[in-house]
UniProtKB/TrEMBL annotation:
rRNA-binding in keyword set: no
Cellular compartment(s): Cytoplasm
Keywords for this protein: Cytoplasm
The protein's name in its UniProt record: P2R3C phosphatase
GO cellular component, one term: centrosome
Chief location category: cytoplasm
Gene that this polypeptide is encoded by: Ppp2r3c
Gene Ontology BP, a term: microtubule cytoskeleton organization
Length: 148
């Protein structure tokens, strides 16, 4: 008669055998981790001068590209002018409002850098219980200033 441990070992061996046959006979387990992209790279050491220079240069290029995407003062003034010109009446107190139709018109005229801000998603995000379905021009402009 077999001991309890021998029975468990035999059961595990049979389970493993049948499981591997069922999975297609692969000996190695799940290899999906091989498809995960690498997201961490160690910082270069002090004696790796070339790698340090490469890191500094790539960071500078990245920051230059990001700064070109930002709106400069003239573009912000132009955006404010367009928003003010296309406001939709009636005003709520002192606050100027704009509807979606005019919002899209401003988006077409504002230029390529501003295009990313004139989406239905952003309009809906800033829409708050206005009976005419409008958003505040000031809230939208502040949003652009924070995100852009």
């Amino acid at each position: 008669k077999k001991s309890e441990q021998e029975l468990k070992d035999e059961e595990m061996e049979l389970f493993t055998k049948y499981y591997m046959e069922w999975k297609g006979g692969r000996k190695c387990g799940n290899t999906s981790y091989m498809n995960i992209p690498r997201f961490y790279y160690r910082l270069p050491a002090e004696d790796e001068v070339l790698l340090q220079k490469l890191r500094e240069e790539s960071r500078a290029v990245f920051l230059q590209r990001k700064s070109r995407e930002l709106l400069d003062n003239e573009e912000l003034q132009n955006l404010w002018f367009l928003l003010d010109k296309h406001q939709t009446s009636p005003m709520i107190g002192e606050e100027a409002m704009i509807n979606y139709e005019n919002f899209l018109k401003v988006g077409e005229k504002a230029g390529p850098k501003c295009k990313q801000f004139f989406t239905a998603k952003i309009f809906a995000k800033l829409l708050h219980n206005d009976p005419y379905g409008r958003i505040s021009i000031m809230q939208f402009f502040n949003y652009v200033m924070r995100k852009g």
